[in-house]
């Protein structure tokens, strides 16, 4: 998934990108996703997220609450969601499919 970013066009590329990421929603200056997975899947997913997030120099918030895994991606500058956060969301979706398909 590759979208144009910046002021080259007036389209909202974040909205376009999010349509390709089912389950992800935009809430203010962050994007988020809640997954229903078991504890072992949560552990495996968290490890995969850490590897990708480190490579992208991002710090997602991943937490476990009442049998749900909650993921929030907020830009470091606190201002605008960037291509990096959307890329990480896409990689998280790949990891989620991998973790749940091996169950």
From TrEMBL:
| Source organism superkingdom | Bacteria
The protein here is known as Putative pterin-4-alpha-carbinolamine dehydratase
Swiss-Prot/TrEMBL catalytic activity:
(4aS,6R)-4a-hydroxy-L-erythro-5,6,7,8-tetrahydrobiopterin = (6R)-L-erythro-6,7-dihydrobiopterin + H2O
Q: Taxonomic lineage per UniProt?
A: Bacteria, Bacillati, Actinomycetota, Actinomycetes, Micromonosporales
List the EC numbers from the record: 4.2.1.96
Gene3D superfamilies, per database record: Transcriptional coactivator/pterin dehydratase (3.30.1360.20)
Question: What broad class of enzyme is this?
Answer: lyase
Asked if the keyword Lyase belongs to this entry, the reply reads: yes
Q: Which UniProt keywords apply?
A: Lyase
Example of a GO MF term: 4-alpha-hydroxytetrahydrobiopterin dehydratase activity
**According to its UniProt record, which protein family does this protein belong to?**
Belongs to the pterin-4-alpha-carbinolamine dehydratase family.
């Amino acid at each position: 998934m590759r979208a144009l970013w910046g002021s080259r066009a007036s389209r909202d590329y974040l909205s376009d990108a999010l349509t390709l990421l089912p389950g992800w929603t935009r809430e203010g200056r962050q994007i988020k996703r809640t997954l229903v997975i078991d504890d072992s899947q949560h552990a495996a997913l968290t490890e995969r997220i850490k590897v990708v997030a480190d490579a992208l120099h991002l710090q997602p918030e991943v937490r476990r609450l009442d049998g749900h895994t909650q993921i929030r991606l907020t830009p470091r500058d606190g201002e605008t969601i960037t291509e990096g956060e959307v890329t990480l969301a896409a990689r998280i979706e790949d990891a989620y499919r991998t973790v749940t398909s091996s169950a």
